[in-house]
Specification:
By secondary structure, the protein is an alpha+beta fold. The chain has a seven-stranded mixed beta sheet, sandwiched between helices. Strand 3 and strand 4 form a beta hairpin. Helix 1 packs antiparallel against helix 2. It is globular and about 40 Å long.
Amino acid sequence: MIRETVSADTPILLSLAQETGVFKPYEIVALQEVLDDYHETMHKMGHRCVTCVLEGQVAGFAYYAPAAMTDRSWYLYWIAVTKKIQAKGIGGELLNHAEQDIRERNGRIMFIETSSLPHYDLTRRFYLKNGYKHATSLKDYYAEGDHMEVFSKKFNS
């Protein structure tokens, strides 16, 4: 079941993201700030955060929002699935849910940014498998040798 994220989910989502082993400590701190801001004000500004629950346990989440000063562009800022059940379709369900929600809100395109580092290889393949196109690379964006890889997917408007 995918439902709107509630503030009581925050500690669980932080732990889930940390346990994936993908995110750096400062990214977990940033996620805390993002979720706090979401519950306080950003949900009123069109930001969306959804949580997937399986058998009473949080299995994953996605955070996405309209891109400011654009014509119906959106960003997927976060998507994570608990390490125990990765590669079982939950990420795809969360991504499909976000896409459908964006379509219902008349979204035109979604962008996703991720790292070029080797431990993000599965992430990049996940986006390609789900119909995203590699749009561009920004060399040395995150750090020397760590490029930003940008993916995009257009929706029928």
